[in-house]
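Thread: quick sanity check before group meeting

JM: Hey all, I'm pulling together slides for Thursday and realized we never actually wrote out the predicted structure for the chain we discussed last week. Dropping the sequence here so it's in one place. If anyone has concerns about the input, flag it before I start.
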Amino acid sequence: MIDKFREWFEGTWENKVQAFTYPARFAMVRIIHKRVGDYFYGEQAYNYQLHSPYRTFVIEPVEEGDNIRIKNFTFDKSKHRGFKDLESLELTPKPECDNICTFNGIEFRGSNNHCDCLVPWKDEMTYLQTDVVLGKDYYNVVDRGFKIGTAEQIWGSKHGSFEFKKISPS
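JM (edit): ok, ran it. Output follows.
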């Protein structure tokens, strides 16, 4: 199961069809997931700013029984932006932001299902809720930030998941 997840997750993704179909709701975004040992380093950027990613991340998928735990980490983002020096990543686990995925024979589905993953947004702290669906050639994800102690959405998609298609396997 973990090998299938890694194979499907790695590569370059874009939501071109969705962005062209609903331009007022979805920006065109490209995500690259590059495997580094057991980890994935990723960069997410608007299509018109591919060399200036607005999000960088490191995750490690780990098989736990019938689930895949997607472990999240913090690291010095400025040091590695542009896929630089990835062999020297110094990672700090951020278990409060881990996602749990299950495989139903067709796709992986998961979420973080808790309010402990804190993300600064402008001048306030928010909590992150993420939902993902990963198939062989598609990756649907929605990240939303909510005001702490409430269900008031502060940032993220209000129109559902970003629907990415794989455009390159690695």
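AS: nice. The radius of gyration is 16 Å. The mean pLDDT is 94.
JM: adding both to the slides.
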